[in-house]
Amino acid sequence: MSPDPSTTSGCVVIGRNEGARLVRCLAAARRDHFPIVYVDSGSTDDSVERARALGCEVVALDLGRPFTAARARNAGLARALDLRPDLRYVQFVDGDCELDAGWPARALARLATEEDVAVVCGRRRERYPERAVFNELCDVEWDTPVGPARSCGGDALMRVAAFSAVGGFDARVIAGEEPELCVRLRAQGWRIERLDAEMTLHDADMTRISQWWRRVRRSGYAYALGRAMHGAPPERHWVRETRRIYFWGGVVPAASVALAITATPWALLAWPAAYGVSAARSYRATRARGRAPRSAAMYALFLMLGRLPELLGALECAWVRARGRERGIIEYK
Predict the structure, then answer these.
(1) In this structure, what DSSP letter does residue 251 have?
(2) Which CATH number describes the domain made up of 5-135+142-205?
(3) Does the N-terminal peptide bond of residue 234 adopt cis geometry, omega within 30 degrees of 0?
């Protein structure tokens, strides 16, 4: 039997100008009887008023500091604990997502019976993958294996004691804050699990290539930052991913151009040829996960096209860190 969400758990929803998506998100959390804290990051629409009208506790972040999802989630849980010091579990959910009706019972039951599990997450799906190829790419991205996991995403149910023991999210991390938190949780002996269960519907609303470009650039920034923070052994967090970014986004194009200048113009063909081989491997791996041929092909193609914005994000991270600065969030909506 799973714990009662209304007595053991709270829900922290974060958002910024989510509009109707936020209303769906909050209504779903209310349906599951979660006490809700909504954290708003400087919305210019009526998000705050809508949340209050639905009976949610609202935290409006101070505009004087850079917004990050990590900072918002920390503030939300802090307020939830002010209201309910005995809170045992917290469901984090982004304001553009809607909780599945069956998720809370399964997730809470898992945490209640597995005392060394700190985080459980499930299947996130795109609400409208058919509306744009960029939404479809997100749906493929969310399709990760079930079972023991190294990290979770922004939607997850967490054990408050474990979360607090490691200091919560690092508010300075502008992207990839969930895997960074999970690094610290696993270092303390906690486990993360992805259940074979529907968890949330996500509305990326990503219809323009400029949105896709910013989102991929943010990913590159996140990989580089994660490596800078936890890249040392034994964790080596995102070392392989960052090396891949520099290799495919920098070394392969640069070597191809250099050879074309110094040896033969035909060397320029090495660049698309190498990308084609890599894309073919990605296609086969995506098809093996059960995706349709078109979906797998689009994912493989844009994975290769994303090497440049990923590289730009990684280089930006290196530049920001070298100057000792903090960067605000990279928004794509």
Answers:
(1) I
(2) 3.90.550.10
(3) yes
Q: Whole-angstrom Cα distance, residue 156 to residue 215?
A: 21
Pairing of strands 147-149, 191-202: antiparallel
- Give the E-state strand segments of the chain in sequence order: 9-15, 36-40, 57-60, 89-94, 97-99, 117-126, 147-149, 156-159, 191-202
Q: Strands, E, within 150-249: which ranges?
A: 156-159, 191-202
Instruction: Give the CA angle between residues 149, 97, 310 to the nearest 5°.
Output: 60
Angle (nearest 5°) at CA 226 between 224 and 232: 100
157 forms beta bridges with: 91, 120
- What's the CA gap between 289 and 295, in Å, rounded? 11
Q: Domain segments of the chain: what residues? A: 5-135+142-205, 230-322
**125: β partners:** 201
Q: To which H or E segment does residue 141 belong?
A: helix 133-142
pTM listed for this prediction: 0.92
CB 47 within 8 A of CB 17: yes
Strand partners, 36: 11
Q: What are the pLDDT tens digits along the chain (333 aa)?
A: 566 666 788 999 999 999 899 999 999 998 877 889 999 988 899 999 999 999 999 999 987 777 899 999 999 999 999 999 999 999 999 999 999 999 999 999 999 999 999 999 999 999 999 999 999 999 999 999 999 999 999 999 999 999 999 999 998 898 999 999 999 999 999 999 999 999 999 999 999 999 999 999 999 999 999 999 999 999 999 999 999 999 999 999 999 999 999 988 888 899 999 999 999 999 999 999 999 999 999 999 999 999 999 999 999 999 999 988 777 777 777
- Provide the β-strand partners of residue 60: 40
